[in-house]
């Protein structure tokens, strides 16, 4: 399937745009049928783009398709149902974590293989950073599904917290704040599993940035050393 898809000239930029639309446009949409349809379209676009751009080997494509189809099959119908089945919700979120984890792994490997530092590579690395936040946000939602009351939110967020769809976005917001080690105190993990996950996410965010900066600086220095002998020889 993906072998028939032409990869764009700036593959990571394409992936970044698809992800940005999916996670940034979502809270700007109304939580109604039209908003859910637009969000579902963005999810499918990211799914297709991620497989087409990153999955080169057959086993990678099959794994991504298996996880991705279970994710979409379980999560998309839930957007249009007032009271979705909890078990299907859990299965869908687990499959989503598996799919996005595979994509992050393939994306990081693809960025690290690049011999030069370009804007496309930087956007690819940033896409991986955003995906880590999304993955942890899904993890938080799993904890809240299985143990309601695992998070405490302030009064200003109570109306959003009461809606399952909006609650997911609040947990994604909390995940981004945790990944960047920014704490506002409006969402607080109170369950042991939620606190543990928050600590692990903060550590992962710092490690990702440290490794990423080190690799990009190393590539840039190597490029400069390669260019200087060429200039001297002229």
Class of secondary structure makeup: mainly alpha
Cross-sheet strand order for the largest sheet? 1-2
Radius of gyration: 19 Å
Task: Note the gap between the termini.
Answer: 48 Å
- Binned, the helix content reads over 70%
Globally, the shape reads globular
Give the biggest sheet.
2 strands, antiparallel
- H-E order: HHHHHEHHEH
Helix tally?
8
- Beta content comes to under 5%
Averaging pLDDT over every residue, what do you get?
A: 83
Low-confidence stretches: 1-5
* DSSP, total strands: 2
Task: Explain what the structure shows.
By secondary structure, this protein is mostly helical. The chain is 75% helix and 3% strand. It contains eight helices and two strands, in the order αααααβααβα. It has helices spanning 11-24, 33-54, 58-79, 86-113, 119-146, 158-161, 164-179, 192-233, and strands at 151-153, 187-189. Helix 2 (33-54) runs antiparallel to helix 3 (58-79), helix 3 (58-79) runs antiparallel to helix 4 (86-113) and helix 5 (119-146) packs across helix 7. The radius of gyration is 19 Å and the shape is globular. It starts with 10 loop residues before the first helix and ends with a helix. Mean pLDDT is 83; it is low at 1-5.
